[in-house]
Amino acid sequence: MKKQHNNPEEVKTGGGKKPFDVEGNSPEEIIYNCGRFGLPREQALALLRPKLGVVEARRLQEALSDPGSPEWRCYADGMAAGEAEIAVSLHESVQESKRDSYKNFSAENRRRAINRSIRENFGIGDEDV
User: Fold this and answer.
1) DSSP tag of 25
2) pTM over 0.70
3) At what angle do helices 41-48 and 54-65 cross, to 10 degrees?
4) CB atoms < 10 A from the CB of 111, how many?
5) Dihedral, CA atoms, 110, 116, 117, 118, nearest 10 degrees?
6) How many CA atoms does the CB half-sphere of 9 hold within 13 Å?
7) Full pLDDT tens readout for the chain, 129 residues
């Protein structure tokens, strides 16, 4: 992976591109989109593995596990963007007084609270969820 993106806006998939098309997206875009759509880091590696050599795939696997690496940050930025998109969408739906949307909004907030509690009390789960 040659170019590193520090700005999540640089790796947003646009123009009708498919978010997981390894031919049409850079490795950074694939990693970002996996985070954005809530796919596990292993899925990013699985999608990119056919285009990588053995050494590069192993390096990417290590980088996706290292919170200090650009690849890990790219994935975390994607997760943050995806969570923000969900929150905005749910909030907008609630503002339109859609009863089902309010239920979804409440359920999502409960899910986040439960995951945060599990992580804090048992140390289980992703730190960036």
Assistant:
1) S
2) no
3) 160
4) 11
5) 110
6) 0
7) 434 444 444 444 455 688 888 889 999 999 999 999 999 999 999 999 999 989 999 999 999 999 999 999 999 999 999 999 988 888 787 776 666 777 777 888 899 889 888 888 887 765 544
Please tell me the distance from the alpha carbon of residue 119 to that of residue 99, in angstroms, as a whole number.
Answer: 30
Compute the distance between CA of residue 32 and CA of residue 11 in angstroms, rounded to an integer.
7
Dihedral angle sign, alpha carbons of residues 80, 84, 87, 93: negative
Cα separation, 74 vs 7, whole angstroms: 9
Burial of residue 123, with CB atoms counted within 10 A of its CB: 0-12 exposed, 13-18 middle, 19 or more buried: exposed
CB atoms within 10 A of CB 2: 6
Question: Which segments of the chain does DSSP mark as H helices, in order?
Answer: 27-36, 41-48, 54-65, 70-95, 99-122
